[in-house]
Amino acid sequence: MASAPPVKSGSGPPPPLPPGVARSGGPPPPPGMKALHSKKDTKLKRSKQMGNLYRLLKGKVEGSSLNGRTSHRKKTGSNSGGNSGQGMADALAEITKRSSYFQQIEEDVKNHSAAILELKSSIGSFRTKDMTDLTKFHKQVELHLEKLTDESQVLARFEEFPTKKLETIRMAVALYSKLEAIATTLKSWKVVSPVAQQLEKIESYFNKIKEEVDATDRNKDEESKRFKSHNIELDFSVLLRIKESMVDVSSNCIEVALKESKEAREAAKEVKSKSGSPSKMLWRAFQLAFRVYNFAGGQDERADRLTSELATEIETHPQI
User: Fold this and answer.
1) Residue 299 DSSP symbol
2) Looking at residues 154-162, what average pLDDT do you find?
3) For bias kind Low complexity, which ranges apply (predicted)?
4) Cβ atoms of residues 178 and 213 within 8 Å
5) How would you class 261 by CB atoms within 10 Å of its CB: exposed for 0-12, middle for 13-18, buried for 19 or more?
6) In a 10 Å sphere around its CB, with 0-12 CB exposed, 13-18 middle and 19+ buried, how is residue 144 labelled?
C-alpha cells in the first residue's frame, strides 16, 4: 500500500489536496504543541479542522501553493582601521586626560565605598520569584551605580563584588520587560474597521515579534537554569499570555472581517478597494489566523468557531 508523500518540515504550509482526494488523519500538530501539552491551564487547544480548512481554502482562493518567505539577514562586518601615530602633543594630552580620569575613579571608590559595600551584600543575597520585586530591586541598584564615573573600574576595586549576578539581574529585567511590553500591547489592541488596514498593522507587528518570542520559547529552559543559578526565577508564563493574546487579536480581526463582508452582501453590490476583493481580504484574515495558530500551538473555542465561519464565508462569497 503506497503511503502519502512526506510533508517537508518548515514554515510553509503543506501542498493542497487534489480534488476528490481526502487525506487520512488530522493535520500535524503545529510547532509549540509540545509545550502546550505540558500546560494544563491554557485555553489554547489543537484544532481538528484548522489544517484541513487552510489547505482547501488555499487551493480554492489561490490555486497554487503559497510562496514561502525567507528572511535574509545582512551580515555586516566591521573594518578595523589602522591606528594613526600620535604626535608628542597628543600623547601628553592623553596622559593628562587619563590621569584626571583615574583620579576621579579613586574619588568614586572613596566617596561611594559605603554604598557599594551595601550593594555588594544586597546583590549577593538577593533572591526572588516575583517580577515586581525584581524590577524594583534593579531600579534601586541602578540609582547607585549611575553615579559612578566608570562602573567596571570602580567595582573592580571591591574584592568579590558579585558582578556576574549584577549582569544576570540586568539580563532578566531586560528580557522580562520586553516580553511584558509585547503582552501589554497585544492585550490592549483594538481592532476596528476597515479591516484591511488592521491586517497591515497586525501582520507587521506579528512579523516583528514572532521570531523573538519563538527564540525565547525555545531557549527558556536554558535561560531559566542560568537565572536560577543566581537565585532568580523568571516568570516565563508571560510567553503563554502573549500567545493567547495574539489569538484574541486574530479572532477580533476575523469578527470585523466577517461583519464587513456580510454588510457588503446585504448591500447587494460589489465592494472594490485598494485592499482587493472581499474574498481576498477574508482569505488574508484566514492566513493570519493560521499563522497565529501555528505560533501559539493551538487556539481557543472562539477562534475555532470564527475560523470555521470565515471558511464558510470565503467559499460562498462571490469571487471578483
Assistant:
1) B
2) 95
3) 1-11
4) no
5) buried
6) middle
